[in-house]
Amino acid sequence: MTTSSKTLPRSRSVPEPPSFTHLPVLHADDEVQRWLDHYWQKLGLPPEERSRVAITQDRREFARWAGRRLNTLALGCYCYLPAPSLTRRQRRHLQLSQAIGAQTQEAAAVLMQLPLPSFAVPPAPLPRQPQGAPLLHRHLIFVEPDLLPQSVEVTVAHELIHLADRVRGHPRRHHCHGYDSISVDEAAVTGYPPEELRALLREETARREKAARAVRPIRYVYVCPRCGKEYQRVRRYPRPVSCGTCDHAYNPAYALVLKETLEPKIKKS
Fold it and tell me: Which DSSP category does 180 fall into?
């Protein structure tokens, strides 16, 4: 179950992804890797992008890579980590390289930071990349380790659809989930009917929530003073939060109020 509360903006941690020299990184079991190979080929993803992939089934590792925590109920996640901004020195190297028609290693690294072309259309040829030139963007993927076999397949396919959209230059945002085009794309790619996929998602979400609540039970209930919508929380909100139903942006007029504090259940011995 997800909520739509809006908080005051806060800074994120600095991403600590795997180093370029260690890519690709596959911290996942054989089943995940098998479906990764299968749907990479089925989606027609460029082979060179495989060397930019880092995949894990460890939430803390993914959070460290991406610089942000995952939603507790998330079954999977795709994060595109772009190349760093060009420095003045890098821009100068690129200009010199283009002017003299030569290709230095640093200029090749700058070229790797240009926007990704669509792989549906053959890209314009770039100068040959010298041996050892770094890859300056990454595709980070998380897959929940405790999933049913069919869910593992669907989750890998789902995240690779996001990756394919990014490579094609049309990234799909997270509000475009559910009864939308991505569920249709999942059905087309996996061969499962859309309703079966939605039922599977509901089942997995319920399983994940039950497991999460066994470890971290709901302790606080907040309510919107305007519409009365309730928000259940494991921890107190660390800063002001407003109702996302009443306003899509943070609005102090709809600030949530603590309604109830629940006592933890004592396990019988």
Answer: S
Q: Please tell me the pTM assigned to this model.
A: 0.66
User: From start to end of 82-189, where are the E strands?
Assistant: 138-143
Residue 31 burial (10 A CB sphere; 0-12, 13-18, 19+): middle
Q: Per residue in 236-267, is it b (16+ CB within 10 Å) or e — as a string?
A: ebeeebbbbbbeeebeeebbbeeeeeeeeeee
d(CA 56, CA 141) in angstroms, rounded, equals 6
What is the Cα–Cα distance from 82 to 53, expressed in whole angstroms? 12
Identity of the residue numbered 189: V
What tokens does 187 get?
A: 């059905």
- Tens digit of pLDDT for each residue in 5-60? 555 555 567 889 998 888 999 999 999 999 999 999 999 999 999 999 999 999 99
Tell me: the pLDDT tens digits for 77-114? 999 998 766 567 666 655 665 555 554 444 445 444 44
Task: For residues 186 and 76, give the distance between their C-alpha atoms in angstroms, rounded to a whole number.
Answer: 14
